[in-house]
Amino acid sequence: MAFGIIGWIIIGGLAGWIASKIMGTDAQMGLFLNVVVGIVGGLLGGWLLSFFGQPLEGQGVIMSFLTCLIGAVVLLAIVGFFMRAKK
């Protein structure tokens, strides 16, 4: 299923929002940052899953969402670690 840019923004926004709820950072983030975290998380999640040998091509919307969600949670954990270390 081919997505346009709007589809990826929607999937990224949902994944970023859910990841921010999981990590407890939702109060600090707005809609724009949720979308950015979801999209960057999708790139990070795609890299991580391909690094571990999981094929991602043609897996569908649910796998795309889960990839974005996993990557967004990892991204928020990394950012949280560095923010705590900075204090």
Describe this structure in words.
It contains 3 helices and no strands. It has 87 residues and is mainly alpha-helical. The protein has one domain (13-22, 30-86). Helix 1 (5-23) crosses helix 2, helix 1 (5-23) packs across helix 3 (61-86) and helix 2 (31-51) packs across helix 3 (61-86). The longest helix is centred in the C-terminal third of the chain and has 26 residues, at 61-86. The chain is globular. The model has no long low-confidence stretch (mean pLDDT 82).
Topology:
Blueprint: H1 5-23, H2 31-51, H3 61-86
Helix pairs in contact: 1-2, 1-3, 2-3
The percent range for strand residues is under 5%
The separation of the N and C termini measures 45 Å
Average pLDDT, rounded to a whole number, is: 82
Structural class: mainly alpha
Q: Which overall shape is indicated by the principal axes computed on the Cα atoms?
A: globular
Low-confidence stretches: none
Fraction in helix: over 70%
Number of helices: 3
Q: What's the alpha carbon Rg, rounded to whole Å?
A: 13 Å
Largest sheet: none
Number of strands: 0
Give the key terms.
87 residues, GlsB/YeaQ/YmgE family stress response membrane protein, globular, 76% helix, single chain, transmembrane, cell membrane, transmembrane helix, Transgly_assoc, mainly alpha
